[in-house]
Amino acid sequence: MITDMEKWTRIRRDVLVDDMSRRKACKKYNLNFRTIQKILDRPEPPDERKKSVRDKPKIGPFIPRIHEILEADKKVHRKQRHTGQRIFERLRDEEGYTGKITVVRDEIRRYKQQAAEVFMPLAHPPGEAQFDFGEAKAVYRGREIKVMFCVMSLPYSDAFFCQAFPRECTETFQEGHVRAFEFFGGVPRRISYDNSKIAVAKIVGRRGETPTREFLRLQSHHLYDHHFCLVRRPNEKGHTEGLVKFSRSNFMVPVPQFDDFEQFNQKLADDCRNDLQRQLRGQDGTKSELIEEDRQAMLPIPEDRFEARRVKGGKVNTLSLIRFDRNDYSVPTQYAHREVILVGSLDRVRIVADSHVIAEHVRDWESENVHYDPLHYLALLERKPNSLDFGKPFEEWNLPEVFAVLRRRLESESGSDGRREFIKILRLLEKHKLRELADAIDRALRIGAMTVDVIRILLQEGCESPAKLFRLDGRPQLQDHNIPEPRISQYGVLVGTQEDQS
Computed over its alpha carbons, how large is the radius of gyration of the chain? Predict the structure, then answer.
């Protein structure tokens, strides 16, 4: 089927070039004489005439109601807004509409096109950045989980950096910044954010106004300026919004599988580094060339690395446990019922009291788990020796075999007193390493002296290092130096002088 322009051109060539009569052209193209004459008078078709808007007798009275429903939808969650089918059913059942659903959908589409917002293109000078979090699925240690990944982008050069974490929280927010600064080789002068609770403590009007203390600590360390976008206006940091989708589609498809977050993050950093070789549409150079202009406008990275951590207070319960981020961690029993400070980083949880660290655990990113350190309960165990076999902290305590041999011999010789002696020996772990104590116990078993005092002496012997001989080998500057022999007679003179003075 030929288009109107093709048909127009053929008619003009047939009549004006090939001398076809107008009457014959009318028969060939099934057009009247006037239409043929209009085609011959104009080299191209006129602009399409504006079609008159036809009356809509069936939908017309219901158009205000459709607009009212669509306006009300703006105030509810997007997943509970009306579909075209649902609006049609309501008009039919509640208002008595008798028309077709296609007319209703056409009116919905026309209204949304008129109401669509137009955004102003924003300028991005070198040295500015945007930051945001996204989420993706991953298989971590054989189990599917949701991971949160942060993206910091430089709109001027289109460079970006991506890292994945188990959760979006204060410490991952801070660590994402620190790693991005190290990747870019500088600190952006201004960073744009959305209004997350991690960064914003108070929203005034439609924009974040009061940053959180931990956000200010990060900002004070690196000295950059911040900008909080308007609520529900992601276009203000649309660059990083787009790169969040790009990172998920290009770096996390198919669904990544890994056993260690740091290894996966190294892979993401390599992906971001390889992406710097891309050349953007309309740009003369690659991203790696443009990022140099970004770096020149950035602030220097402070020499002392920022510590990404979250600090909170808490009270130790009766089981000598303290809760941090939905998991419980043990502390020494002498701190039960006391107020302590918890410091959580990416990989460790430290508990502080009396200005020093009283306990330290590996960070657990799961929830509702309990982490015991058996050493924290040894003081209590000495007062309650029967709990050695039933105490929860000792259930999974895998000690070397020499400890079991020592316990059997002590209990076979002294019964309950032997168990108490064994617990006293266990308490030596509060000051000595497990391997050192195991070696001392092994020596004690061989000589048949199995008391805590003997094992303490053996431990001390193992800790003492023999005196080293001073050699002149390799010290040529000292080899020609002669030290005169001491004269013992001088000592007698000094002693006599002191006696006369007394």
Answer: 40
Residue among 238, 234, 253, 247 nearest 164 (CA): 247
Q: Say how far apart CA 196 and CA 131 lie, in whole Å.
A: 11
State the pLDDT at residue 1. 39
Residue 251, both tokens: 């770096």
**Six-digit token pair at 253?**
């498809």
Give first-to-last CA distance, the chain, whole Å: 134
Global pTM value: 0.69
Task: Count CA atoms closer than 13 A to 317's CA, side-chain side.
Answer: 8
Phi-psi region of 127 (alpha: psi -120 to 50; beta: other; left: phi over 0): left
For 318, phi then psi, to 5°, come to -70, -20
Q: What is the mean pLDDT of residues 43-72?
A: 76
* pLDDT value at 167 more than 70: yes
Question: Domain locations in the chain?
Answer: 4-41, 60-115, 128-297, 310-374, 398-463
Distance, CA of 498 to CA of 502 (rounded, Å): 6
CA dist list (Å): 258 to 139, 145, 255, 483? 7, 11, 10, 66
Tell whether omega for the bond before 46 is within 30 degrees of 0, i.e. cis.
no
DSSP letter string, 330-377: E--GGGTT-EEEEEE-SSEEEEEETTEEEEEEE---SSS-EE--GGGG
Pairwise CA distance, residues 43 & 390, whole Å: 100
The whole-angstrom separation of Cα 258 and Cα 137 is 12
Question: Residue 195: its pLDDT value, please?
Answer: 84
The CATH label, of 3.60.21.10, 3.40.720.10, 3.30.930.30, 3.30.420.10, for the domain at 128-297 is 3.30.420.10
Residue 465: pLDDT above 60? no
Query: Which helix or strand (DSSP H or E) is residue 192 part of?
Result: strand 190-193
| Residues 452, 382 contacting (CB under 8 angstroms) | no
pLDDT, tens only, 351-364: 999 989 999 999 99
